[in-house]
Amino acid sequence: MWRVKVATAEYYIRQLSENVRKGLKEKLAQGWLPTRPPLGYMTIGESGHKVHVIDPVKAPLVRKMFEFYATGEYSLKKLMDVMYKNGLRARSGKMVVKSRVATLLSDPFYIGKIRYNGSVHPGSHESLISKELYESVQRRLLGKAIPRFRKHFPLFKSLIRCAICSGLITWEVKKGHWYGHCNGYRACTARKYVRQESIEQQLIPYFDKIVIRSERLVNWIKQGLKESHHDRIAYSSSARDELGKRYEATQKRLDMLYDDKLDGKISEDFYQRKLAQYTAEKEEILSGLKRHDAANTSYYELGACILDLAYRARAMFTDPNRATVDRRALLNVIFSNLTLKDDKLNVFYTKAFEIVSEVVPLWNEKFEPSETRAIKGENAILGTARPVMLGDQDSNLNSRLQRPLSYH
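-> structure tokens emitted (408 positions)
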């Protein structure tokens, strides 16, 4: 009798274990994680029908964590401290520790995929970040160069190269000031030291060149961007409709495939093969939809951000209270290929700001405030009657202002 009871118990346990495995496998097949989701998501629904949705409180912080790490300016330890100060907490209410930060940053759940028992499955939940951002973070995580932070961090570290040998300029502290110099790479003879303050002063004229002096002009250009954006929206809407039809057709195929599997009409191998095919098609379509969604706003938003940054760049760079990390980010956005020869800095703009540097001086000349022209000796009455526009200026400002910004 005892053996019969033991055998019955063992059989019951095996059956229970098999049912649990089937349940987990079925949950994964439907695109849902059978365990608790990572930070940034929460579980809703009744038992047996629970799904994962974005947590409106923690999701923005998790997204910001990915963005911070992708810049390359943060180590995992530094990121842990920064996110704690920003309000990110584990479910226990404590700090998200370094090892957990690394785990979260490498979790494909945030791009709509499920990693379970060493395998990655397509998910039905909403992505929290873009695939591009996730891949950028993975390159940082797997890279050998780990950012190391010191209390006193040189502003131009790894941003300037020697004009002669192309080696990075080395920075060190002497008598309370940062000094940069070439270490003599490839037998380079450029060994002259230059103070950080001198480099900063040499950059000021380049900031001045992109500063739009009239805030009113900035607003006019933004209005022109909005109006020229309508044609782009019309094209994007047409493309989105077509992608939407393809998405619905693919989703129907997936639903039918799942029904056929439940009814036993198809084999497991055939199901898995077609599931992978349709899922890949679905992801491709979703990626296209997201690109068009972004295109609906990115054209205007990019132009507006560049204008705002050009308007405030000099003040931001010269602000003594602004953090070094923020100033370095500003330099990376506006300038590229900074080189140093002796104590002279060679400066090149990034593509967007190269265009801005060409058109902004013309805008400032055409739309110079009337009081400035009056000081230069222009007719005061003319300045009052036409405080902004000159004689050759088209009265339709928006139509003329669209043209320069079309480069973006």
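The first strand starts at residue 41 and ends at 44.
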